[in-house]
Amino acid sequence: MFNTPLSIGKLRIAFPAGLGALAGYSDWPFRVLCRRFGAGFAVAEVLLDRFVLSVTRGKKASRFIRLDDEDHPCGAQLMGDDPQLFAKAARNLMERGFDWIDINFACPVKKVLGKCRGGWFLAHPREALQTVASVREALPPQVPLTLKLRRGLNDSPASQERFFEVVEGAWDQGVAAITVHPRTVMQRYRPSADWEFLRRLRQRWPDRVMIGSGDLFTPELACRMADMTGVDGLWIGRGAVGYPWFFRELEAILEGRPIPPPPTLFQQRAVLEEHFSLAATAYGPERAVSVMRNFSFQYAKLHPRGSELRKTLVQLKSSEDWRDYLRVWYAVDLPGIRKPPPADSENASDTACARDYSG
Questions:
Q1: Element spanning 147, H or E
Q2: What is the CA 129 to chain-centroid distance, rounded?
Q3: How far is Cα 31 from Cα 37, in angstroms, rounded to an integer?
Q4: How far is Cα 324 from Cα 330, in angstroms, rounded to an integer?
Q5: What is the mean pLDDT of residues 241-250?
Q6: CA distance 86 to 135
Q7: Where are the alpha helices (DSSP H) in 77-124?
Q8: 350 pLDDT more than 70
Q9: Does the structure show a pLDDT above 50 at 110?
Q10: Rounded CA gap, 291 and 86, in Å?
């Protein structure tokens, strides 16, 4: 399935699946937690170039641009609309210690597209390649540059031609790897991701490094994508949110071992406590409550009384509320359940690359 370690430039990553960039989720605490569960790499949540350049020290920098030894290898994802600002921000993030820079040409959120960012570039190859060239020139040769793409703006033949123009030009300019989510920008998160497109892309460029993304909601689906498409690595997004066990289960499948049973409530509680401790380090104990409330809606899907938990979660305001929540709902060690795929309503409302600071 995966014959060699995943290579991103000169980086060698032994386990070929990692946590992809997800705004509001792939922050430092959750990246570290996923690494402890076996994720081979992580990509920090997308940052706007202007935001990176405006933040130097202080609370915002520590929240959004935090990195430590346990977090490597870790990429930083950038989004913006100005090649020169992209380049300056990329160099800034490299100097902060990120192992590679990833450019977001994939985000399908309307307010992002309206500001000529994210997936907008797939309809404008000239501007996309100007950005790639500017960032590549700003980085030292040893720091890899990667791209996150969708398979075009829409399903038109012209859109597909522009996609291939961006990819071919990016290879020529020294991009080390591309990650492709095989839906168009206009499709957002429905219908199902077109894995056949990834297979054809792999056949077109068999010697380039490609990472697959899209509908990897379970370890079994991740293995199926790898078998079907031949990609070099896997970018795990929503499937891992609130389920860091994903990487441990995927490792078991790849090694030919049985998949462990879903985590029990005591196992879930231990991870929730570990996650809160990391969040408190990053944000402070009180702000950590709101951060964990967001994650806990996802963790609640593993609980046999998940719908009741979600009603309780909206009321959590303080660290004492958080301790009471764990004490009440995770007091008895019952079997857990596997995290289900996201509902259509979650797909429709997903804003995986739109943060408040996106401008």
A1: strand 145-150
A2: 23
A3: 10
A4: 10
A5: 96
A6: 6
A7: 83-95, 110-113
A8: no
A9: yes
A10: 28
Beta carbons of 354 and 23 less than 8 angstroms apart: yes
Q: 80 near 122, Cβ under 8 Å? A: no
pLDDT tens column, 283-302:
999 999 999 999 999 999 99
Given the structure tokens 């995290």, which residue do they identify? Answer: 339
Selected residue with higher pLDDT from 295 and 62: 295
Neighbours of 255 (CB within 10 A): 7
Q: Of 338, 343, 279, 350, give the one whose Cα is nearest residue 22.
A: 350
Distance CA 87, CA 98 (A): 15
DSSP assignment of 159-183 equals HHHHHHHHHHHHHHTT--EEEEESS
Residue 331's CB: how many other CB atoms inside 10 A?
11
pLDDT at residue 245, as a whole number: 97
Cβ neighbours of residue 335 closer than 8 Å, sequence gap 6 or more: 261, 262, 264, 265, 304
The yes-or-no verdict on residue 60 having pLDDT over 80 is no
Q: For residues 268 and 300, what is the distance between their CA atoms, to the nearest angstrom? A: 9
pLDDT per residue as tens digits for the range 155-171: 999 999 999 999 999 99
Name, in order, each residue with C-beta under 8 angstroms of 313's C-beta and a sequence gap of 6 or more: 293, 296, 297, 300, 325
The pTM of the whole model exceeds 0.85: yes
Say which residue the tokens 């985000």 belong to: 107
